[in-house]
């Protein structure tokens, strides 16, 4: 492709059909998927070369198992042939024909993680580059150790892309999920029926996946699904300075669509992008969960229905329905007559790991009175956007439940000031171009039909900034009930040594006019200690002396209190508690080592940070509604954090004036 007098080449892999315009990315593909002598330089551990039989799942299926169905059993003589455990360690069981592409997607994911840590990222070419989206997945455990020593029979070869059409409805989903009365008016077109068309075929592994014949999933997996992903609650400072109490589910990412919009805006090769509603959440699998992608796709659709209060939202109160709940709803839909043949073809899905597809999602929605349309059944994806590039090419933007959101992307959520080093390398994980799409013969489509006028938005380069956001605010009384005598707030900036408390306080003092109160200096200047501890190289603070030294001034307000502990200050003094965090232990270690800390002192501080000791102290000592956690690992974080705190100060002042008036 020629652009501006510059030739951009698409580089092919010499061993398979993979191609990419990024030489660095192509090199990683070759080293990972086609290593010389079976040894990849990206291998973290040495393991004996496993055979295809060793990597295949070991479960067996007995054809004479008692299953209620009509008609012959599909031919599955070779248990789980064609499936292997992902050697990258993500826990997925992958078809051998798709293994090479799956590993390529792990490479794309790893690049996103490198960007988050400030490491080397892919050298995406100059403006006008054609970026192939063959390898755009995000996976859930990039830090897991893995080996890529695969036998030749497991590598992509002989131009094999997909030996069998993936079951996501490929055999039975061609029948719409119709109610009992409608089904009588329509004849089935399934080729899997016998000549007379009077028998149904029990589907097998090629349609239902490697666990097509299991009666119940393992008890440990069921317990994990019942418990669900970890839920944490924290406070966040919004861009307008208000505090919002946020519930975070470990396998869900909210507000990701605006980030994709911003990345597309920063990518100069993108001419126009169409994105779905910004409330759609990215829902991904939990570690070791397995192949429940169909259910996760349904959850993403439900997240839109819930958050926009669109048609049918009353059917999904509270959090997203769990996988086990969705199985119950699908079975209920079958019992009501919606695509009831599927119950015979699958043998039932409740409590199993059998794959589901669009027909199940359609039956579920129809049974709940929610309108939708389905067609072109085959392989499935959750599509959240469509982009048109300046070159005239186009990509789908997708949420893939198999892989989690990378730290580099999470850093951009709600942070309009942060600017990624290379937006194209980050959004690469969400793109699916022709190179990927051509691997599948057909795709299934499930479109939610709603009366909500702005479910889909045309996001042009001049409209990206207009995506709506919803901010929940606390009442003025809640924010100021302890500060009636103060005209300026008191803010504690706390955290483990080395996270950047002083830097934050100094910049905030300069920008806001609040006074920086270093407790370390107060302790030294006023002798508020009981001596010096040589082991930990620090003073033993006398809390009573310290409070006596500051109690005349601090209650009046206007202080940024800088200290690694916060539990001794009276609640009536404090309006906001900011806990600065550094999630990267390597960064924190380097900072503390540069201070000359002893190994004992260094390790103790690392343990305090790892086990959230100071965050828990803050939440136990003050009302949770005023405790905020912020990350500080680079200059962009500091700038963003200070901007948020400054916005909160302005909001606090405004609320103070309104309440006094």
From TrEMBL:
It is an enzyme of class 2 (transferase). ATP binds at residues 498, 500-503, 595. Pfam families: AAA_18 (PF13238), Peptidase_C78 (PF07910). Its main location: cytoplasm. Gene3D superfamilies: 3.90.70.130, P-loop containing nucleotide triphosphate hydrolases. Broad-specificity nucleoside monophosphate (NMP) kinase that catalyzes the reversible transfer of the terminal phosphate group between nucleoside triphosphates and monophosphates. Has also ATPase activity. Involved in the late cytoplasmic maturation steps of the 40S ribosomal particles, specifically 18S rRNA maturation. While NMP activity is not required for ribosome maturation, ATPase activity is. Associates transiently with small ribosomal subunit protein uS11. ATP hydrolysis breaks the interaction with uS11. Belongs to the adenylate kinase family. AK6 subfamily. This is Adenylate kinase isoenzyme 6 homolog.
